[in-house]
């Protein structure tokens, strides 16, 4: 076993995370599900949803047979909804083309929807003892610091260097791959963290690589990996329509691609980009901007509707402010295209709704609040 792997495995025996529901699991379906959920989502958020997901879809075949709307409804709130669509598409392929069994080779896994190179290797390592390293953000940071890689990890040359190094460091004993892979994840998440890594603690520094780490020796821990300055988040504004008819509400199903793809939302205008938050309240909308999704038989229905105060929702790369007009009508007063449907209020809890829409409907007492 390499010195790197040996130190890591020994550290994990004493300090590795314990008690997470997907740890020690050899079932590729459960490993795959946890890996996809943990992308861009915090562990604390994933734990309950992971267990709920397994109770609803206990096998890959059960997931494959489920309607996409059911999958999206259970995913709602986790964000990055492309993951859910890919999850469902991948399950269908495994059920139909692989007889419900996950392939063991990372190269084959990598060809399936939503499974990247590192995720494919994680499944292969945890479930089939495959001797190939993962390289998620935690592992990239650890290797870059230990080996003093100062360039941007986004470049193809540095990325290739990381993959080559990562594969050289795996233990020779294939049986150790599950614990080694888990140790890589845990060490990056709890010791070699992006901010406040343990080696910067002057009182307690139990990093097993301190004697070898080039970044630590040269005082470059906080400069590695190289941080690329992010562009300022865009500010966008829109207006939505909360259209009610007795015990039903009109919803629009978003296209499968794009923001909130595949989810049910309120009919909404196109987003308008503004330069600052000061311009949000000065942005006005017209009924024509909702076409061809929805319109009314009489302009006054829109003009006289009550408007709610703008709400704010922060995405990764933009901030959305949306106001909402509340319209109570008879159905024959509304014209809408095939992307819209009338939904009973009692059925809203079974649909995939974006978090801000759920909150809006709960605040407006259309949807029962779930705390």
Automatic annotation (TrEMBL):
Reactions catalysed: Hydrolyzes free adenine bases from 7,8-dihydro-8-oxoguanine:adenine mismatched double-stranded DNA, leaving an apurinic site
Signal peptide segment: none
Enzyme class, first EC level, given as a word: hydrolase
The record's free-text note on cofactor binding: Binds 1 [4Fe-4S] cluster.
Keywords attached to this entry: 4Fe-4S, DNA damage, DNA repair, Glycosidase, Hydrolase, Iron, Iron-sulfur, Metal-binding
Gene Ontology annotations of biological process type: base-excision repair; mismatch repair
Residue stretches making up the HhH-GPD domain: 37-190
A GO term for molecular function: 4 iron, 4 sulfur cluster binding
EC annotation from Swiss-Prot or TrEMBL: 3.2.2.31
Cofactor(s) required for function per UniProt: [4Fe-4S] cluster
Coiled-coil ranges per UniProt: none
PANTHER family in the record: ADENINE DNA GLYCOSYLASE
UniProt function note: Adenine glycosylase active on G-A mispairs. MutY also corrects error-prone DNA synthesis past GO lesions which are due to the oxidatively damaged form of guanine: 7,8-dihydro-8-oxoguanine (8-oxo-dGTP).
UniProt cross-references to NCBIfam families, sorted A to Z: mutY (TIGR01084)
Similarity comment text for this entry: Belongs to the Nth/MutY family.
Protein name (Swiss-Prot/TrEMBL): Adenine DNA glycosylase
